[in-house]
Design a protein that fits this description.
The chain has one helix spanning 2-52; strands at residues 55-64, 70-72, 79-83, 86-92, 105-119, 125-132, 137-144, 150-157, 164-172. It is α+β, with helices and mostly antiparallel strands. The chain has a single domain (47-175), classed as Lipocalin, CATH 2.40.128. An 8-stranded antiparallel beta barrel has the order 1-3-4-5-6-7-8-9. It comes from Coprobacter tertius. Residues 18-45 form a coiled coil.
Length: 184
């Protein structure tokens, strides 16, 4: 009888210890999740402020072409930037040819006009603008996804159907690490 009671008490103690350990692991996971969510919200607010100030860079790590082909690219040489009403669009692929910008792609500068921002029902921020310059005449639409600094930009040239999409992160201009090639 004493052995049964002792065994039962030991089993209950072991179960309680196991539950406590599981709760601690769950608490740690939840704390990590909460910290990550708070960090992403901070990045979102920083990107939102940069868009409001018109001083940001979308550093792209992926390019999607007209028919759905995608390529992963370097974020410091593939970007769309806005500084006031001056816009830059640069794409550079990792190819042996240097291209017009010296990086294997093209860099175009232009003046941004008709800049409009709106927030959709999900809290995503959508910025649209026209960019005109020596080598560019395009409609650019940038979507900053709610809760992070992840974004996507659609670039639709006005005189051709060679549209493409970049996806990456929106960074304030002062914190950006992009390398700009030669402009057209």
């Amino acid at each position: 009888m004493k052995k049964t009671i002792l065994f039962t008490l030991l089993a209950i103690f072991a179960c309680l210890s196991n539950i406590q350990a599981q709760n601690t692991k769950e608490d740690a996971r939840q704390e990590k999740k909460d910290a990550e969510k708070a960090y992403n919200e901070l990045l979102y607010q920083q990107a939102k402020l940069a868009i409001d100030n018109k001083k940001f860079v979308l550093e792209a790590d992926q390019v999607m072409f007209k028919y759905g082909n995608t390529a992963f690219v370097s974020s410091n040489t593939n970007f769309v930037g806005l500084d006031g009403d001056n816009a830059v669009v640069q794409v550079a692929f990792n190819i042996p040819a240097s291209g017009p910008n010296g990086l294997g792609g093209i860099t175009v500068d232009g003046k941004a006009s008709n800049i409009k921002t709106k927030t959709d029902k999900k809290g995503n921020i959508i910025l649209s603008m026209n960019v005109m310059g020596v080598g560019i005449s395009a409609q650019i639409n940038i979507t900053l996804y709610n809760g992070s600094n992840s974004a996507m930009v659609d670039i639709s040239p006005n005189f051709s159907s060679n549209r493409f999409r970049l996806s990456g992160k929106i960074i304030p201009l002062s914190q950006s690490t992009v390398f700009k090639g030669r402009s057209l």
